[in-house]
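ARCHIVE CARD
SHELF: 3
SLOT: left
DATA:
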Amino acid sequence: GSLFQFSSGTMLRCSLVTVFAVAALVCAPTWGSFDPNRVRFIDQHRSSNASVPTNYLFRGNLPLDSNHDFAYSSLRETLQAKAAAHNITLPPKFYLTIYSLLDVLEEKDAKVEKDFFNKNPDLGQYVNKPLVGDLKQPEHTLEALRKEMAENLDKWQIDRLPDKMKDLTALLQTPVVNGSELVSRVTYIHCEAGMDRTGELSGSYYMHGLNMSFHAALAIDDSVETRNISIYSQNSFQWYCYYLYYKGGQPWQDCRLP
């Protein structure tokens, strides 16, 4: 019989516990000002068609100012500066896709972003894909079970990281028609602090989209703040590494914690 037949139900219950219990620890509202120091450039996609503009991917923290307003101008200036640090010049006009990882406990913050784009649809859009992390640690799972769970990650994981990697890839590669013209899309991933859930998703993309090692991706995540990424977000991120190792075409990955 399959080891996973038992673990699937167990993991679903664990993930649901994560939604309701862990959320209170790592997903509770922590309103503060937008911090440019937490913004990182991640990737860009240049089309083979010269008439199609380049799209870009960034990560950071909640882009609200001290008045709890959407910090569009500050975010825009910061994105331009972070791109310039990589010898990239963002176009003067671009379509901003906010890829928010906020959950239902953070609706007050999410509403500010939603309202901004409802009033300014020509400037971009708000996309909400909540993350909650995983309680189950791959390191503490028997190898045979870990392999089976990793190969079936898209079936049991609440955060569905394999699907979200497809989402990000599609956003990065899809041109935006804004009015009568094609414009660049700038996708900005964020949670509240830009550290844990943002690190989970961005770290997964570093491996998926940039072929970065798990250890290198984790080092970037841990460099954003004076503390390391939360254990729940790290667990999810590490499970995705094992998914890539067993099933996703990256058998060279070392998914063990450094």
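SLOT: right
DATA:
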Amino acid sequence: MAAQMNKKRKFCNDGVFKAELNEMLMRELAEDGYSGVEVRVTPTRTEIIILATRTQNVLGEKGRRIRELTSLVQKRFNFEKDAVELYAEKVANRGLSAIAQCESLRYKLLGGLAVRRACYGVVRFIIEQGAKGCEVVVSGKLRAQRAKAMKFMDGFMIHSGHPAREYVDSAIRHVLLRQGVIGIKVKIMRDHDPTGKLGPKKPLPDAIEILESKDEPAPAKPHSVPKNRAPVEVVPAHVPVVPQA
């Protein structure tokens, strides 16, 4: 049945599956620092890798919670038995994960912390973790009845072009407070990393690298080489022949 599926429909189904899986895990693992999901399809089974800051909470006591999540995914998406496997992977640097910082800011606001203090704390932490720039936007009824938006920025941020897709990580969350719903948007611009672990391998297209000049040997003594003149033929002088006795 899967072999007869149209290519366009297959890609749509894969996208819907990942979006629904991401939404489910985001609601379930929000308190455990959920930072995204990766789906790897092999001929024998489907591997789902959950990225989180607190992997021990995702696994649960003796792996109980990860088994519950595996069973839930298997029943919801009609997988065969032992055809899907869930793994938990720790995020390399949570300061460069927009989802993790968005959730952190969300719980700070739910705890009653002032908006400015919470946002400045998140911005400072992101920059200290090695980000090139960040932007935090909070909108809604922050103090008065009139809704407004507040933007907190630091560092360097690009907004357009293909590098924005590779360098900028963004996340959006909604906070249900007593006065209404507040929207949070966090954008983090990572720095160039040749290893590809903490940032993109490909450098920015407008990044200019100035190379060191090469050491050239100095000439022994100054001399000039005429280039525009015609070559002068050297006529050998007449040598007199001395007769032999």
